[in-house]
Write a structure and sequence with these properties.
509 residues; mainly beta; 7-stranded mixed β-sheet
Amino acid sequence: MTAVYNTFQVTPPRGLNFGPVEKGETQARTFTIRNNGIFPFDWCLFDWSDPPTFGEDGRPPPPAASVQAGPFQVKPTSGKLEPDGDIQVEVTFEAAGDEDFDSKLAIWVDGVQGDPPANVAGQTAASFQSEASAIQILAGTSAYLLTGQSCVPGINTTDLQTVFEEQFFARTLEDAILIAGRADVRVFSEADQVFHFGPVLVKNGGAGTASRPVSPAVGGPSLVTESGVTEYLRLTNPKAIPCKVQLQIKPREGGDATAVSTEVFEINPQELVIAPHDSRQIEVKFTPIHLASFGAVLEAVVPQGTDPKSNYLSFELRGDGAVPSVSLQGPRLFGDEGGELAMGKLTLGKSHEVRMALRNDGLLPATVRVEYKPSPHFTVACPSSVALSKGEHRSFHVRFHPLQVGPVQTSLNIRTLGNPFEDVAIQLMGEGYSSAICWDLTDFRRPGGALRGSEETSQESAPPAPDELELGEVAVGADLRAKFQLFNGCAKPLRFKFPAEMPAPFGQQ
């Protein structure tokens, strides 16, 4: 005769793990108890931490229809299994709070030895023996581990550098401008909790004149369109469950209602789902509609989130509507009909050059179109399109070289793209003349005057008068000498003679 114990098998053998479950939701899973022995046996389930009182025969009392072990509800709780028979036990996990749960379920089977020490995964022999001694677990009882993670959905609202990973992140706006060296910088100001778009070209300001952002983007620069500027921000889900986020643009407290219209600030998408431990980009577009400062508030809300530390993210948006501004530097332009550049009288065969410059005095990069009507008497040495960064200037030359006697003119148009108020129309005017003999003072420089650099703009538009020699102020008793030329406009040589004595106060010729 051979004496044997009853044997059974639980599947899955190492416990039942529900994984992450959103708070308030309920999930059900099952495990199987199978009779592997040759005899039928009775079985029952109870909470390992709250065992019933066993009878003198070593059997527990009949349990209730269901057993509650922490947040886990188990049913059925008892029965009889024939050899090679099995039964499925349903376990329901009710997620509550934002924490991890693990509970031990006691499985009692009649006629088995039960668990040896350290039978539960991850539990030491000493702790198991201590628990067994404390609750007086009797023979035939084995522990089965139930685990689950209750999660509250949320987003990262503390580490804002991950939100603005493609933009400047500074303590203040002034710090970012100093680092970037320019004002049109996209930056999040940590002290004020404000994201600044900086100056941006107004809507329909002009094709090809959109502002260039300064963003130290790792994944690529901001998208700049002909109308407005789009920045990419990143929302991160640090939780183990998917997170639904709703986004909206709201007026800031005490702000102008027109400054928050969809024509100014736009958010896309307005609703998204972020996978567990993942992130998603959102687009925030700023399109100013006129020259003004605009402000609004961007809110990201997790509807199912109950933790105030992770269910709400809010910061202010600010931006300025601007247009490019380019000034024309050089001689004063005046005339009855508008801009005129009078280049005076010049003898045929000679040329006179006026140096001018275009300077970007605005906050935005600018593009200037330079157009002039071709003329054999004038030359404009400037590209037809000039791109200028903030503070940059570009010099160009206007040269007058008459080929006929009499007044001549042509037109010069300078347009700043995106700012029609600064369009300039200039009439280039001059007069050619011919004389048998004349003074040539075009290369004369007043003695004592400083030499001008080749890039310095001209102060006068016309050359010196052909019959006037301006020597300026001369100290009493000082000696001043001037050199100039005499020009022969005839086809044959001419003989000339200066008077023997120059009129006072001029000395020898």
